[in-house]
Amino acid sequence: MPDIKIAPSLLSCDFANIQREVEAVEAAGADLLHVDVMDAHFVPNLTIGPPVVSAIKRVAKKPLDCHLMMTDPQRYVAEFAKAGAAYITIHVEANAPLGETIEAIRKAGVKPGLVLNPETRIDAAAPYLSKIDMLLIMSVWPGFGGQKFIAQVLDTVKAARKLAPELDIEIDGGINAETAKLAVAAGANVLVAGSYVFGGDYAERIKSLR
Ligand code: DX5
Ligand code: ZN
Hints:
Layout: E1 5-8, H1 18-27, E2 33-38, H2 50-59, E3 64-69, H3 77-83, E4 87-91, H4 98-107, E5 111-116, E6 134-138, H5 153-163, E7 168-172, H6 177-186, E8 190-193, H7 195-198, H8 202-209
Parallel strand pairs: 1-8, 2-3, 3-4, 4-5, 5-6, 6-7, 7-8
Helix pairs in contact: 2-3
The chain binds D-xylitol-5-phosphate and zinc ion.
């Protein structure tokens, strides 16, 4: 299994002070910065777009992990690449040609990834595992931070780890010190945490996840 990486979700940061938050969470030990992009169609919430990603990029040292919760992510690959995304992950449930979009992300110089909603089976991503750099498994329904971890997804994590021993497998939603242990035991190595990291002492919380 690849090394454990911690990816604080900026969705839970103080948006009035993004630069300060990015610097603080990087100093606290973040490996990646998780950016939740929501389009108000794929999920009932509207968050961050390319101009804000590009502003974050100006102050960030760590790679930006852009999680696109969008119905038509293929239309925005170029913009998010230009804004400075290091990873772009797209949902298998989106209205996108997966193979083509993965290729477009890679051609734009960005690492491509796929995302599975909690009830989506690994089969939906299986044909693409050799073509992606990250598989993100949602452990809450996408749309909002602060929800409760759905333990059933651990079976998907285990199945994914079996199929792809060397792939970065990321888990997102309801991650805290307890659920992180379960996720890592199942085979996840990239831990997204929003409300947990930003809800306390950043360094202590990141350390507890590791
Ligand atoms: C949910 C987002 C998550 C969210 C996680 O749609 O994809 O990244 O910020 O928040 P917590 O860690 O609070 O569950
Ligand atoms: Zn996310």
